[in-house]
Amino acid sequence: MDFLNAMGGTAAGFFGAVIPFLIVLSIVVFVHEMGHFLVGRWCGVGVHAFSLGFGPELFGFNDRHGTRWKLSAIPLGGYVKFHGDANGASVPDPEAVARMSPHERAISFPAQSLPKRAAIVAAGPIANFILAIALFGGAIYFGGRYEMPARIEAVVPGSAADRAGFLPGDVIRSIGGSSINSFSDMQRTVSGAAGSSLAVTVERAGETKDLVAVPDGVEERTPFGRHRFGRLGIQGPKASEAKLVHYGPIQSLGLGVYETYFVVDRTIDYIGKLVTGRESADQLSGPIGIARVSGEVAKVGGIGGLIGLVALLSVSIGLLNLFPVPLLDGGHLLFYAFEAVRGRPLSERAQEIGFRIGLALVLFLMLFAAWNDILNLGASWGARGT
Question: Which of 48, 90, 189, 314 has the smallest number of CB atoms closer than 10 Å to its CB?
Answer without folding.
Answer: 48
